[in-house]
Amino acid sequence: MAAPSVYGAINAVSAELARGGIAKAHVNAVDDYKYRSIDDLFDRLAPLLARHGLCVLPRVLERQVVERCEEGERLLFHVAVRVAFTLTSVDDGSAHDVEAYGEAMDASDKATAKAMSAAYKSAMIQTFCIPLAGSEDADRSSPRVTSRAHVAEPVHGWEQWTRDIEDIVSLCESEAAIAHVQERNRELLKSLGREQPALYRELGDAFTARREALEQRPAASPRRKRRSSAVKPQPPVPAREKEDA
Questions:
Q1: What is the pTM of this model?
Q2: Could you give the CA distance from residue 135 to residue 229 in angstroms, rounded to a whole number?
Q3: Number of domains forming the structure of the chain
């Protein structure tokens, strides 16, 4: 009994990709690592899929969205998807499902599309065993991992700590006092942004509201120098002028 055509097509695509692979030609400037872009994968894979009569049909099984803050500043949408890719042979309609996960973050509406691209890359690279072109041996270097400092949650919890800071800010009488509160609690504020984004935004609103309240205060009018009703004493007349008089 002949094997389903889908497996023959997968094998044929893998054989062609094994000759040259897909190089990691791009560099992530922020985290300093090389990667293969989704366009690199499409450019190499699309002609091979068409040549060997293999279709790749995606289907999202799960999707989760979480709001996060980037270093306590910009709001980002973190999307995680679980996607099933059905590889179908056009020869006999035989098919095989491959599942993969993808995660991505974006400040607007691109997070889901990025997560789908990540899932596709992962699924195709593993399904067709796509090698790297010109990659160096993994034993050539040994990167050193440094641990990131972690600020523990306050004893009374983030909720109570946020309320305490809000009370302190409401009593600040100057911009300098507000800045002092921020500087003194900088590390805890960063941790709050990572651990509790909603509380962080609430606390940020409290800082903003207090600053606006201070700006709206009427400026104190300068005090006028009070005139004295008493007659100012005259300077003494020199003795010589008295004799002339």
A1: 0.54
A2: 94
A3: 2
